Amino acid sequence: MGYNGTRVIFMWMLQVLLYGLLKGTREIVKKKSLNRNSVMEVLFFYTLFGFLLVCPDVLVSGVTGVSTRHMGLIAVKSFVIFLAWMFSFKAIKKMPISLYGILDLSRVLFAMLLATVVLHETLTTYQVIGIVLVSLGLLMLKGVPWRKKKSDGEKVAPSLVMFAFASCLLNAFSGLLDKILMRDVTSSQLQFWYMLYLVLFYLVYIIIAKTKINMKSALKNPWIWLLAILFIIADRSLFIANADPASKISVMTLIKQSGCIVTILGGKFIFHEKNIRYKLLCATVIIAGIVIAVL
User: Fold this and answer.
1) Tens digits of per-residue pLDDT, 196-211?
2) Which of 54, 85, 47, 34 is nearest to 239 (CA)?
3) pLDDT digit string (tens) for 234-251?
């Protein structure tokens, strides 16, 4: 492979790495925003602000010309993310962010399975070794020496862990749809319609569930605004990487997980959480698997 080919591969990997680091930062910002507002308030306004930020693309690049089939797939992707975010935000609100960041790495396993079954991607020996290490790191979490004192704030309900895993599975499926959609639509088109559908889904949910929304409080929450900005930048980077024919969803999913280091460090220095050393050990094993898999 020549210099230009290596450079192209490096560029899409760099885009995915940026997404991963911003994703880890977003998890911290999510938890900060949830300290001021309810899950649904943050979800709805975060999505709405994000949609407003991508609206200028309508004037610059245009978002029309999407086929009915692709509009349907975008709607499915949006509904999948609608559910994924409901699960993840409920988990993040009550779970130590450092632990959530590590559990979120399980999406690697789901994405690898979908990539091989649906897209027929072939796993290399290094990627198989990487999957084994990622699985080992996740299994090690079962041995985390959680403290028994409630004051430590480390006791986690099994339902929250299930919410985190459900979110990972749904996000992995969304990543698969991204790869399929980016073959025929632009990043601007996907981001605009995907965000519009999300806003509508959350609005319908609020109306049907008769959820109380404190608009004034949400508008004054700077963390929600920051969350929307980080989301738009991260997703645009990911969509651009997906549009590259050389990109592989299995490798992309592994690189995305670099954000877990951000969440663990955030748990230590921002939320003052416990057992950080052991969590870093688990994350190190998982990251080692990620590094080996992208060799």
Assistant:
1) 999 999 999 999 999 9
2) 54
3) 988 988 888 888 887 767
In whole angstroms, what is the distance from residue 247 CA to residue 252 CA? Answer: 7
pLDDT digits (tens, 9 = 90+) for 85-136: 999 999 999 899 988 988 887 777 787 778 788 877 788 888 888 888 888 8
**DSSP of the chain, one letter per residue?**
--HHHHHHHHHHHHHHHHHHHHHHHHHHHHHHHHTTS-HHHHHHHHHHHHHHHHTHHHHHT------HHHHHHHHHHHHHHHHHHHHHHHHHHHS-HHHHHHHGGGHHHHHHHHHHHTS-PPPPHHHHHHHHHHHHHHHHGGG----S-GGGT----HHHHHHHHHHHHHHHHHHHHHHHHTTTS-HHHHHHHHHHHHHHHHHHHHHHHT----HHHHHT-HHHHHHHHHHHHHHHHHHHHHHSTT--HHHHHHHHTTHHHHHHHHHHHTS--S-HHHHHHHHHHHHHHHHHHT-
pLDDT at 8 exceeding the cut of 70:
no
Angle between the N-to-C axes of helices 158-181 and 68-94, in degrees from 0 to 180, rounded to the nearest 10: 150
